[in-house]
Amino acid sequence: MIRKAVHFTYKAARRIVVGVVGATVLLLGIIMIVTPGPALVVIPIGLAILSIEFTWARAWLRRLRESISTRNNNDLGQRAESHRQRVTND
After folding, report:
1. Which residue, 50, 10, 59, is CA-closest to 29?
2. CA atoms of 50 and 54, how far apart (whole Å)
């Protein structure tokens, strides 16, 4: 009985600590959008910390990764097409 109470307390404490640390990092990243700083690096780090305990953060991080991947693939395709046009025109 005592072990169960200690386990619950540890789980609750871990969830609180992860929530506070992750929310702080995420908030700093959001602040960095309007102030100088690497917001595009800090925001995913905050979401990654929060995703340790929270499924909503995991979903947001997955969506962010997919949008970055899609954007990079589109840019790569455009660069390849631009290169093909330059090569064939020369």
Report:
1. 50
2. 6
